[in-house]
Amino acid sequence: MADRQTRTPRQQDRTPAEELLEELGPVDRYHDYESLGDFGMPARAMTDDLLSGMTRPGRFGPLEKVHAFWFAGASCDGCSVAVTGGTTPSLESMLLGAHPGIPRIALHHPVLNVESGAHYLRAAEQAVLGELDAPYVVILEGSIMDEVAAWRAGGYWSAQGEEPWGPDGELRPVSATEWIARLAPKAAAMIAIGTCATWGGVPAAEGNPTGAMSLMDFLGKDYRSVLGVPVVNVPGCPPIGDNFNETVAAVLYFLQGFGPLPEFDELGRPAWLFGETVHRRCVRGAYYEEGVFAEEFGDPECLVEIGCWGPVVNCNITSRGMINHVGGCMNAGGACIGCTMPGFPDKFTPFYKRPPGSLASTTASRMVGSLIRPLRKFSNNNLNREVRWDRQGASPSAFSREKSEPSALADVGHRFYDKVRRANDTGRNDADVWGKRDEAPAGGSPNPRV
Ligand code: SF4
Ligand code: SF4
């Protein structure tokens, strides 16, 4: 391990991961599990042992399980919350091996596992040593901070456990960043969850003192897993849990030999999830098209003039919802602040201010909408009437509210519209429409026209 006083200078030609490992040096001591006893194992068993006894037999493919190491960098744990709320597929179904085409996941999560301390780190140690009993993927939530600078200053930013890697075998905190650097070379896949891990996110915003960066930036643009897979990125702050669970399931189908490598875009995002903008599936999109805009939160119209960036943001929350296909920003009244994007947050601040570029499109929408809205209202009034009512020139009342008959001008307009609408209708004939002859209704029409 390099002496902090004789450190090497920082170089541009190494990836940050290579630089960190060079700074820290190799490791060769590990915990003595015989001497630990049950300390840190209140259940007297490891999580993997408990769950493996509950899994379903009859799985297809060569892999019985795949280990998933979950690390947290500069994170709020929102990604963990999002993933545990996923339903398609649910985390618990993957932990229990309930999907025959994918291997069971042996999850190592600092919050969810029942073992703690050194026992919790046992599988990660075996992975570093290349002695793990199954392939593994590494998942990072939160951004990677500059642990080289912290190490040189005598501290660390974010650690996960202790290992006897200090001078003379002393225990020292091991940063999540160090675990990532040591595990990445032998991983089957490296997966970044949430915008902090995928692009740096809030911890990397202007003014931060941590040097926070994304997993992709940390491992370098040429990183490939042992299976040749670049870093997989599932952004969002927090991400949609189902986006992540579905992506993991798709990667596992690939590892099991039951599916192709899922399609990822040039930024490593699942292409089928991030190919569309928020705006294209927004529940308020028609208001934008008709040039009607909210003036304050709580209004039902399009939110662009009070700060929505949806037209230029890649995110599927408007079609998928947040949890179990329910909720999501615009569905719940919130404007898009671009939380899935590599430019978040610096390129979207100040939040809740109109994006300057929207002025041209909203002006055009207002102009077109001022013409389209009355015409649609005109047709809407007509379509809210049965054909029978038109022919009888009368409509029933409902809930004691009289529905007025269309004006003469509207009547002419609708007849003209009907002629245009049916101009190419090859099914037309001159016979009466069955059941809609011009008889008076039972009890008499309130205003018979025929
Ligand atoms: S609220 Fe945002 S995403 Fe929805 S229509 Fe308006 S601008 Fe588009
Ligand atoms: S709609 Fe915008 S703010 Fe909401 S989750 Fe998607 S990117 Fe984030």
From TrEMBL:
User: Which Gene Ontology terms cover its molecular function?
Assistant: 4 iron, 4 sulfur cluster binding; electron transfer activity; ferredoxin hydrogenase activity; metal ion binding
Q: Which residues form the Cytochrome-c3 hydrogenase C-terminal domain?
A: 274-352
Show the segment(s) annotated as Disordered. 1-22, 421-450
For the biological process aspect of GO, one term held by this record is: anaerobic respiration
- Which Gene Ontology terms of cellular component type are present? [Ni-Fe] hydrogenase complex; cell envelope; ferredoxin hydrogenase complex; membrane
Q: Record's InterPro entries?
A: Cytochrome-c3_hydrogenase_C (IPR027394), NADH_UbQ_OxRdtase-like_20kDa (IPR006137), NiFe-Hase_small_C_sf (IPR037148), NiFe_Hase_small_N_sf (IPR037024), NiFe_hydrogenase_ssu (IPR001821)
The domain of life for this entry's organism is Bacteria
Keyword presence, Iron-sulfur: yes
One Pfam family recorded for the sequence: Oxidored_q6
Where is each NADH:ubiquinone oxidoreductase-like 20kDa subunit domain found? 76-250
Q: Which UniProt keywords apply?
A: 4Fe-4S, Iron, Iron-sulfur, Metal-binding, Oxidoreductase, Signal
Where is this chain's protein located in or outside the cell? Cell envelope
Q: Which cofactor does it need?
A: [4Fe-4S] cluster
Q: Where is the composition biased (Basic and acidic residues)?
A: 1-17, 421-440
Q: How does it assemble?
A: Heterodimer of a large and a small subunit.
> What PANTHER family does the database record attribute to this sequence?
HYDROGENASE SMALL SUBUNIT, NIFE / NIFESE HYDROGENASE SMALL SUBUNIT FAMILY MEMBER
Question: What protein family does this chain belong to?
Answer: Belongs to the [NiFe]/[NiFeSe] hydrogenase small subunit family.
What's this protein's name? Hydrogenase small subunit
Q: Which organism is it from?
A: Blastococcus saxobsidens
